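User: I'm writing a tutorial on reading structure tokens. Could you give me a worked example: one chain, its sequence, then its tokens, then a sentence or two explaining what the tokens reveal?
Assistant: Sure. Here is the example chain.
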Amino acid sequence: MSLVDISKLEFSIIEAEDDKLILDISVNLSDNFSEINSISLLYWKVGEDQIWVDLSRDQEGEFVINQEVNRFLASGDYAVRSVRAEDNFGAEILFTESKLIELGFNTTFNLNNSKSDNTNPVVESFTMSDFYYDETN
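And here are its predicted structure tokens:
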């Protein structure tokens, strides 16, 4: 892995005009990855569940994804955890979050979602009826 193996990393979640939330990621890799058509990227809302997404090569040769995500996604800081790709020789290369930062890439993005659901559910009441066991079945 060299400094030029990854030359671009852009990560954002955008509120679109049609009231949708769009995950927008773009990654540019060197010619060492010219024979592959997709890569994987791991991101998360910091401290919560991690999500793998597959990026496909576009007409310009960049790996991109532009997909709708949950409209009520929680506001907060999101970060790229890693980028996984297989080079032209079949070796799997993993660019970790710390390596991406070391290479000068911004791996975090703050989402301020106007329709965010940041409130955890609260059980206000709970009842349970008597339990019956049917011995005939």
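What the tokens reveal: The radius of gyration is 21 Å. The beta strands are 6-15, 21-29, 38-45, 50-57, 63-69, 76-86, 92-96, 108-111.
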